[in-house]
Amino acid sequence: MELTRDQRSKRDLNHHEIIADEYERVVNAPRALANSALFRPVFGLLPKARGKMLDIGCGSGQMTQRFGARFDTVTAVDHSSAMLEVAKAKLALLPGLAGKVTWVEKDAFQFAGNTQAKFDFICAVGFLHHLAPADLTEMLELLTACLAPGGRMVFAEPLEFSPADEPALARWWNKPFCAQFTGYTKDAEDPDEGPIPLAVMHAVLARVGLNIVYQRRAWELFPRFQGNLVDKIMIPLLDIFTRRNGVVGMFVVQASL
After folding, report:
1. Which helix (H) or strand (E) holds 16?
2. CA distances from residue 40 to 34, 37, 67, 78 in whole angstroms, order as listed
């Protein structure tokens, strides 16, 4: 039986409240080098004005950490207090962020539907695939209404794919990591989420009047050598050779004029 929006949100919230203190180890740390390669081009596509940034569904603050220093103020929104505490602790002493981040514990629909603020840059990364497909259009309509004139948004989400499409090179590189991977040590019901078909993502962006400025795809590439120099050289190189039809889709968009 399909969950209602409220049921889906509660399951997601419960999951992240339980696993928050392990999220960095399980999710972010193994993807750090691949994500650096994925998001590097975005720096050249940021709005010229420093202005305001919104990190919606911010989780442990990865996008605030990556882009926040570029802006005058950052509003970071998540419905999980535990994830926000992880983000606050991680980012508290980072240069360029002191005093500029406002942390908001709130449901994304409630925040985006009620804020009067306009943001020059909006990040919704690893967030949209937590929504029911029927709710994607509404969320993007709300975020588009939050966008200042000339502002831009970045999305990055897992895309629907066939395992047969995974490049042999990526599969070979990831094999040692996958063999020794350990997940969460805590028992938490998985959230009701799933990859987004690329055609659906394109259709929703067009429906709400968002033009794609830049897009690319990537395969997840994990460290073999605890993130040392070999990983730092090889992962960006492997990303170049394997990114076609990748499982992660990243889109930089702006509103139609």
Report:
1. helix 5-19
2. 10, 5, 10, 24
Here the tokens at position 180 are 């020794």
Q: Please choose, from the candidates 121, 71, 80, 131, the residue with its C-alpha nearest in 3D space to the C-alpha of residue 103.
A: 80
Q: Mean pLDDT in the chain? A: 95
Here the tokens at position 106 are: 């709130």
Question: At 167, which amino acid appears?
Answer: P
Checking 92-96 for CB contacts under 8 A at 24+ apart, the result is 94/65, 94/69, 95/69, 96/68, 96/69
pLDDT, position 1: 67
The pTM of the full predicted model, rounded to 2 decimals, is 0.95
**Dist CA 243 CA 204 (whole Å):** 23
CA distance 71 to 154: 15
Instruction: With residue 11 as reference, give the H or E element that holds it.
Output: helix 5-19
Alpha carbon distance 118, 152 (integer Å)? 11
Beta-carbon contacts of 131 under 8 Å, excluding residues fewer than 6 positions away, are 8, 139
d(CA 127, CA 123): 9
